[in-house]
Amino acid sequence: MDNRLKITSITTWIAGAIAIAMTILLPLGYFSISYQYLSGSLEAEAEIVSNIVAELINSNPDLWQFEKMRLEELLARRMRFNREETIRIFDSKNKLVAERDKPLKRPLMTRRFDLLDSGSTVGKLEISCSLVPLLLRSGFAALLGLFGGLIIFITLRILPLRSVEQAEKTLWETNRLLEEKNREIETAYSELKATQVQLLQRDKMASIGQLAAGVAHEINNPIGFVNSNLCTLEKYVAKIIDFISAQGEKLTSCATSATLAELSGKRKSLKIDYVLEDMKHLISESLDGTSRVQKIVQDLKTFSRNDTGADSLIDVNTCLESTINMVWNEIKYKATLQRDFGELPQLKFNPQQLNQVFINLLINATHAIDKDGTITVRSRFEDGLIRVAISDTGCGIPEDIRAKIFEPFFTTKEVGKGTGLGLSISFGIIKKHGGEIEVTSEVGKGTTFTVLVPVSAE
After folding, report:
1. How far is Cα 106 from Cα 111, in angstroms, rounded to an integer?
2. Measured distance CA(330)–CA(324) in Å, rounded
């Protein structure tokens, strides 16, 4: 393209220069030559007429200026040129003696010659003609020059470029074919790379799953001990509290007032009543914590179970709850979670893959929120489809990139914070089961991903 522009520019300059030269030089040359010719012819005629008049003067040197009719007849016979002219004869006092007057349009060309008698100037001869015909012919020559210049410009501008345009067209077609081949190769490479990354991701997740299963198993045993010991401790504390209460009642009946006052003061200073009450709460909260840990461990074991690729009948709401427990640590610092679960039939699906879809969508929703947001998880069964909608009040997705979010490796996150495969893998999983993932979003208000999976009649 740059070479073509350069050739076009050079050709245009050359053609323009020649055309301008043609347009200017033709009328200018014609005018110059014609002007010189007209000037010479006027001078020649003036010289001839002056010689004839000089002969008349020599024959009658004293009275020639009174022979007006004879002079005008003489001037009339000399009008032989195919042009309108005015000829005037003046005496030595510049007084008009005779004339051959024709109406002339200005501008005029005028030539003068002295009338001599024995070498002395006795008068002047003045001859004039209009330059209008010359200017008109020069204008016509200018039009011819302009027309010729345009022809030259068009010829020199177009003809050399035809071969360039033809070559460029051939080159463009070749480049287009090469670009199509390159796009096909790039598409195939991207698909191959995406498949490779998905396989690596699957292997990585399998390894992490095995590790998580081992860690969950190791954690589960000591947590069981802690939970059992806390239950036993709760019973022991209850017995100790009962014993202290009974002991206090006995001391009240048999101890002296001084002893009772001392024990009462000690009981207050050590905050025994508060300690006994708080011990119950501490043990209760610890038992709640161990129960929470056991539930997380159980969810981790369920999620990390080896993916055999086989589908089974599952409860989607249970999968959602399990997934929420897995990613709760991501959510709790940024958003409030709202659950709106409806009654759902069982779905034949691979539970690990469905968990992976929900995790990707929940993590994306969390990352879209800066702080103090809301994530809503809603499930319904409508028109033979299980619909799971995960909404956030985050930044939203601009319309110009909404169609690209399911493409492999497409991500708006910073380098190192996302592979661009989460939504692509999720879309592939749902698509494989005959479902769809719909997206609605408004920039600045939030996004909703809706997973739609058909329930088979089996």
Report:
1. 15
2. 10
Q: What confidence score (pLDDT) does residue 237 get?
A: 80
Parse the chain into domains and list their residue ranges.
2-130, 309-458
Residue for token digits 């206090």? 248
pLDDT, tens digit (0-9, with 9 covering 90-100), for 99-122:
777 777 888 888 887 877 777 777
- CA–CA distances in Å: residue 37 to residues 43, 44, 142: 10, 10, 19
CATH topology of domain 2-130: Beta-Lactamase (3.30.450)
Q: Which residue has the tokens 């007429």?
A: 49
CATH number 3.30.428.10 is the correct assignment for the domain at 309-458:
no
Peptide bond into 27 cis (omega under 30): no
* Structural tokens at position 384: 């033979």
- Helix residue spans in 255-271 (DSSP H): 257-269
User: What is the per-residue pLDDT for 271?
Assistant: 80
Q: Determine the residue type at 14.
A: I
Which run of H or E residues covers position 379?
strand 373-382
Distances (CA, A) of 396 to 198, 401, 438: 27, 11, 14
